[in-house]
Write a structure and sequence with these properties.
The protein has 106 residues and is of the alpha/beta class. It has helices at 12-16, 31-46, 62-67, 94-105, and strands at 5-6, 20-26, 52-57, 75-80, 83-89. Strands 1-3-2-4-5 form a five-stranded mixed β-sheet.
């Protein structure tokens, strides 16, 4: 069973430097973040071996939130080989996330 990766300042760069990575910037008190949490977990299973699915708790990792200019959560950043190539702010459907991932994996 695939599981998302918990990111922090010590493993962030290493995790996103190769391939495609979806990073969910979230916080425990954020309603929309909790709403999309099951979707993120499903994507982690479905994309295992194809793309990395990761989460950053902005309460615990404020430096990362500042580094990437996160002002609203949930913010979903899509990385390809270490570079931010796309971004979504707010809750979205699983299909919307999957379409972005699929486009990056081509």
């Amino acid at each position: 069973m695939g599981k998302y990766i918990e990111l922090n300042s010590s493993n962030f760069d290493e995790t996103v430097k190769e391939g495609v990575t979806l990073v969910d910037f979230w916080a425990p008190w954020c309603g929309p973040c909790r709403m999309i949490a099951p979707v993120i977990e499903e994507l982690a299973e479905e994309y295992e071996g194809k793309a990395k699915i990761a989460k950053v708790n902005t309460d615990e990792e404020q430096d990362l939130a500042i580094k990437f200019g996160i002002r609203s959560i949930p913010s979903i950043l899509f990385f390809k080989d270490g570079q931010v190539v796309d971004q979504m702010v707010g809750a979205a459907s699983k299909q919307a996330f999957a379409e972005k991932l699929d486009a990056l994996l081509k």
